[in-house]
Specification:
globular; Beta-Lactamase; 6 strands; 50% helix
Length: 236
């Protein structure tokens, strides 16, 4: 066989091998996406107002990390009265430090997501003027890249889901943003339902002071009840 034909066949074999690996990776990712979304959907379907909404939010964050193939992330809620974003749930290196901390709703990449009601994909946070390095410095952590999507329902922003640093080192993509937004929409609808239902039940029993905002404050309190004595604001 001529040398040129041998070289051509070697190149074709290498190309087909690469394509096969790419397809294998895509199938694995698709299975991971479907598994995470099914898991959250089942949780949402079982959810009732009497249940602890934090269980659902906890499941939401776990599913987000599974979807994005990452170990670090957080779920923040927007407190209506103070107009602050509050870390409610975290995973990874920050899991023991951040819950309960809050900052103004217009700060950081999470604040930008709230103000613009759209996802943010940041490939290099150090080059992004919206990034708050103070959080990393406080934690002794290094964020490389991140994706953040709003928790929004009925044109109302309830919070943000942030996922940091994919395990494989890849950048987050537009497909990631679309998938994470679907997950966030499910969680936001359940959160909105839970807070409205709590306020309705309270009013039905004559507890007129429990507004929707008060119900959300109760959720925030439940998530941060173990951090008494720690400062509530980051020095930013």
């Amino acid at each position: 066989m001529p040398a040129d034909d041998v070289l051509f066949l070697k190149r074709e074999c290498a190309r087909l091998k690469d394509e096969n690996q790419l397809l294998t990776d895509e199938v694995k990712a698709l299975r991971r996406y479907i598994s995470a979304l099914q898991r959250l959907q089942e949780t949402v379907q079982r959810f009732t107002p009497e249940q602890d909404i934090l269980i659902l939010l906890d499941e939401t964050l776990d599913c987000a990390l599974e979807l994005m193939d990452a170990a670090d992330g957080s779920l923040l809620l927007l407190e209506e009265d103070s107009e602050e974003l509050v870390f409610v749930l975290t995973r990874g290196q920050a899991s023991a430090e951040l819950p309960g901390y809050r900052f103004d709703r217009d700060l950081g990449i999470a604040g930008w997501v709230v103000e613009n009601v759209e996802p943010a994909i940041v490939h290099n946070v150090r080059a992004d003027s919206r990034f708050m390095p103070e959080v990393d410095e406080y934690l002794g952590y290094r964020t490389r890249n991140l994706i953040a999507v709003p928790l929004v329902t009925r044109d109302k922003v309830l919070g943000v889901i942030e996922v940091l640093n994919k395990r494989g080192g890849e950048d987050f993509s537009e497909d990631d943003a679309s998938l994470l937004s679907i997950l966030a929409a499910l969680a936001a609808s359940a959160l909105d339902y839970a807070t409205n239902a709590a306020a309705y039940v309270a009013a039905k029993h004559g507890l007129l002071g429990l507004t929707r905002a008060a119900a959300l404050r109760a959720i925030l309190l439940a998530s941060t009840i173990n951090i008494t004595g720690r400062p509530s604001h980051l020095a930013i």
